[in-house]
Amino acid sequence: MTSPQPQDWQRRIRDLKIEIDRATTSGSESLNQIDVDAPSFGIDALQRSYQQFLEWFNGIPASGKLLAIAGGGLLSLTLIKTVFQLITSLITLSVFGIILYVVYRFWILPKSSDSRIDN
Question: C or N terminus of the chain, fewer CB within 10 Å?
Fold first, then answer.
């Protein structure tokens, strides 16, 4: 196996340095400015998502539109049902907590204070 001559390496290094210098001088403006595709939030993102949905929805056949509407309605009803179940559970827990507090306050607490007085 033969190794390349040092002159070839030196010439290649010089060529690379020239390419780097050319790139930095011609692209110095692009080095100072960074274009970032940051996700945008708020109204613009919502409008963009809505437009993408409309394009998708208009691109499907009529039977697909019917199925998409039915699926969306079913999903919406399921989400509403879940929210109502969560609210019902929270109300039930709060009523149960109030009942337990009343039982503790009026039946258990007086009995424990009576036993301390007897001693």
Answer: N
pTM to 2 decimal places: 0.48
- What is the Cα–Cα distance from 71 to 60, expressed in whole angstroms? 14
* One-letter amino acid of 20: I
**Residue 65: how many other CB atoms lie within 10 Å:** 13
Residues 6+ apart with CB under 8 A from 31: 24
For the stretch 2-59, pLDDT in tens is 565 767 888 888 888 888 888 877 655 554 555 555 556 788 888 999 999 999 999 9
Give yes or no for a contact between 48 and 54, defined as CB atoms under 8 angstroms apart: no
- Contact at 8 Å (CB) between 31 and 24? yes
Which amino acid does the sequence have at 88? T
**Chain centroid to CA 56:** 22
Tell me if residue 26 falls in helix, strand or coil. Answer: helix
- DSSP annotation of 61 reads -
Which tokens belong to 72?
A: 């969306």
